[in-house]
Fold these 4 entries.
Entry 1:
Amino acid sequence: MTPSPGRSRAALTLVGLAAALALAIVAGVAFGAVRIPPAEVIAAVSRALTGHGGGLADAVVVDLRLPRVLLAALVGASLALAGVLYQALFKNALADPYILGVSSGAGLGATLALAALGTSYAARAVGVPVGAFVGAALTMLLVVQLASRRGRLDPTSLLLAGIAVSYTLSALTSFVLVYDRETMTSVVFWMMGGLQNRSWQHVGMLALMFSAGAVVPALFHRELDLMLLGDERAGQLGVSVERFKLVMLASASLVVAGAVSVSGLIGFVGLMTPHMVRLVIGPRHRLLLPASVLAGAIVLVIADLLARVVLAPVEIPVGIVTALAGGPFFIWLLVRKEHRR
């Protein structure tokens, strides 16, 4: 059988996104305070994989830049995956972890963990991810409860509840920082969103959390398609709606918690990426999920690269870069939505 034009286009899109991500990773490692030729980057990685690495250039590539760039890709992929899930479950084009307050909840949970356990390696490796996950999950449940009207979610109430909860949790986080001044400086810069001084341990931890959170949506992409038809219709077609929502929300909360625990608050990636991808390949989640994951990784790798080179040697928090891009995009979505009414 000859593949349909739609499938061919989707396959080409996935291949193109994978190639673009590879190029973005090489560029992210090559450019910085000291420029390293892309060929030397590839050679340094090859030497490290074969156990023949050595020298200052190899150390800069393998121990400093490569884990940071791979972590940026994983954070972007996590936020984009969460954005796809929230937009499908709530049938709201403006839903994303940042706007719904989930990122702020994860941030508060991580901050409380740091304040309670200190800034030791054990606290950062275990306490911060656990605190971030608990904060993200509880925040999502609270926002859903506030936005529910007679068992149904109202899209406008969902956004309003998310924004209100987000501001409240941000204020609580600021209060904790003022109360515990010893951790204030490190946490303030962490809350702006950044990937400085990250290591392979952070990459491994986030890769594990992302894999655990992504496997269920990948297996149940058909049910995500059915959720777009509405809760009642999805239930008629065999989806256990409430249970399915809880499982998907848990998956989304897990990947958001992982991203926030290593990078702080980075907004709008989960909002922008699914929309850009959906315009190209359509709403079917079998393709939308992997394409959004790849695109989210590309977006944050490029954003982190810009954060490092625009004002070099001064480094901009990557959360500022994504906010500068995401703010106008959010306004465009609002205007577009109004024109469609």
Note: The radius of gyration is 20 Å.
Entry 2:
Amino acid sequence: MTSQLLDPGYALTLRPMRYPAFYEMYRAAIRNTWTVDEVDFAPDLNDLNGKMNPAERHLIQRLVAFFATGDTIVSNNLVLNLYQHINAPEARMYLSRQLYEEALHVQFYLTLLDTYIPDPGERHKAFDAIETIPSIRAKGAFCFKWIDSVQHLRRVETREQRRQFLLNLICFAACIEGLFFYAAFAYVYYLRSRGLLHGLASGTNWVFRDESSHMAFAFEVARTVRAEEPELFDAELRAQVEQMLEEAIACETQFAQDVLSGGVDGLSVKDMRQYLEYCADQRLAQLGLPKKYGVANPFDFMDLQDVQEVTNFFERRVSAYQIGVQGEVAFDMAF
């Protein structure tokens, strides 16, 4: 019997290559190399101190507090639960690269915190937010529940074990990277549409591209497993994924109620929930599952994520750096 992607073991040879799509994703990620030193946060301080009202500053404080630990949680799940069970060397090459990118995001947000919150005591509070701020604690609990759901698995052999693994993979791609992080991006790009915090937005462009690639990889793993073991993708799995997304939307809506509690002109909890439902439908479609919510994107400022500015950003990078971005810059990921 031909070995399948989730069969236990450690495949070692890249030839013959069974899953070239994963290798191409690895190569594309290498071409997307960037560093935190390229991001200039200095202009943002003028906005924080002179242009933003208390409600907008509260939004940023909560967002920064979530950023303080979000990517570290993703890194832990990648190392503890994903790498050991996706049994193809080309896929593990991509996961190694993803781990580097998650570390880069952690550095990016650490630099962000150090810049935006100069007081050491306030910075300490931001890092403690996952324990002390209920809306962030709820999101953390959701993440850790799914990390813990497969912590005991050393091999994924039975149908139930493989289903558990798939649900963890789908949770981190569709709910954490695909909902929690995308909601955070929406807040950043809303502020950019107001002419605020361009340093944060420019760095977020790179993080956005990374996270979109991470989701694409996870969904390709799910597509591959579905092709090899279609019996895993039954009505029960679909119902579990829909319930997982609903729980994630509830967590992120609670966070929106906190973030927007001061009243931010142009943003509402209702619109944020609709945006989350819109994103959830895109994630279901990427998994080959029927959409559930049938709503439109309520945020005009997210349409094509301001393609002209991002295109200029990439063109500037290509002209200034040897690595640069090669090939097409695609904006077909759902915002």
Note: Residues 29-320 form a domain with the Ribonucleotide Reductase, subunit A fold (CATH 1.10.620.20).
Entry 3:
Amino acid sequence: MSYPIITIARTFGSGGRIIGEKVATLLGIPFYDRALIQITAEKSGFHAAVVEQMQHKKPASLLYTLSGSAMEAPLQDQVFFAQAAVIRELAEKGPCVIVGGCADSVLEEKAPILKVFIHAPLEERAIRTKEVYKAEAKDYKDYVKKMDKKRKAYYDYFAHRTWGKAENYHLCIDSSIGLDMAADLIMRTAKELAEK
């Protein structure tokens, strides 16, 4: 059975990575999340810490494009393009689950693809951030909001559309229904699409 490429975008603390890993296990297909950082670093020559840092940094202006081709693109753009190339290569190898990296946008012309957005109530995300992710913060709700703001800025800049907007995805799931149930919904949808 040929499953679609499954891309997962998520609000911070919603458990999107955990759900993605569960889906990959259920379907028996590769899972890429933090591995994207390492693969991008190996293929591009950028240090893994730089690749990760660029995903949590507010994107630069596009003004550099107006000043002529002699100027080099900002580092964040270079890292994004390197990672986008890796995402395309991984998708060419066959069905997989890719979390983050604007993969839904990068693979927009790729078929078949199942685009998923995972979200959850702020309170639940704050608790998961503290207890599961073991992040250190004075105010966990504020920390989650700041991380979401960075994700939105990164996605909106590179994907050229609005992060979290329902019409940009095939499935939008509130993970407060349970991570296993969320994974099961995605897995069953992927199987249905594979049988079409």
Note: The domain at 5-195 is CATH 3.40.50.300 (Rossmann fold).
Entry 4:
Amino acid sequence: MSTHFQPDQDQGLLTTHAARRLFLSGIYTLVVFTVGTLVLYGLGLQAGKDWSLFDCVYFAMITMSTVGYGETLLGMETLTSIRLVTMFLIVGGMGAMVLFASNITAFFIEGDIQRIWRGRRTVKAIENMSGHVVLCGVGQTGFHVARELLSNQSPFVVIDPRPEPLDRVLALGSERGWQPPTIQGDATDDDVLERAGIRRARGLVTTIGRDQDNLFIIVSARQMNPQLRIVSKAVQPDSISKLERAGADGVVAPEMIGGLRIASELVRPAVVTFLDEMRKDTDRNIRIEDIHLPQDSPLVGKMLRDTGIREQTQALVLAIRGANDEYHYNPPGDYSLDPGDALVVLADQEQVQHLRQICGDPTPTVALQSPA
């Protein structure tokens, strides 16, 4: 049974399959009990018996529950009709009580309570998220995206129609100390994107195996959040331009990237090995990161040499991307920082977080904790 939130299923208590069975069996039990009680009371009045409504309720209850106690309504042994009603209560009541009890047991054993609770907890977690990334599709490519987001402590929500890939992401999250919220659903559905908090997100990654689906997701997400940064996978190289025109800020073709990687292994093996070792170093978790300077950053207007970045954080500034998207590689010390600049640095996660605080970069991160 899936443990992931499914938007197409209302999380109300009476809308799950087991809960509906429980509700219907309860109604059936109540109907048998009510009909039996009223018939007994009516026949008693017709026969001139001094039976109160409470006497009939009590008798119906002990009969249906098979408790009995040996107590009967005074004078009922002389009325065949009352005995027929009692037989109805015994047969129908036992069936109703057994059905109701079995459904209560199934409701807990089958895990519906736990699933509903997890679903509500997932919804609450997503509602509290802002500036996160929405990851659509966790196949081979998407799984590596999730692993990198976890390594960079970037909060994200995962969407996939299959439970197995979502389970893999949760298992990976357990190893890293934080499990991202997971939604089992179709990311091409606008409601699913809404549930993932797309309007509050800062980024969207779509790695679906069909370019048509990626295109549909990009168009929908761009309409919901015009400020969203969207990165998409392209299965076919000729789809790259189409995905970009649809609104993707970046498009990656894994087959093309794989070919470039193979060529790089041949002509520049030392560089490739350096990047691989940097990625594999889980003790320090060194990465090449970008740090954005907002309008009110305390570093705006300062020369690079006067910022104290190297002295305070040990981060190495490799390049600076200006507000006009022009890159300045290995920037000199007299480079003056402007609002909107992005620092491309080589640093570990602790150094990156320290530098974000110094620069006033609002990019959110996950405070990783060991699983309870």
Note: Confidence is low (pLDDT under 50) at residues 10-15, 368-372.
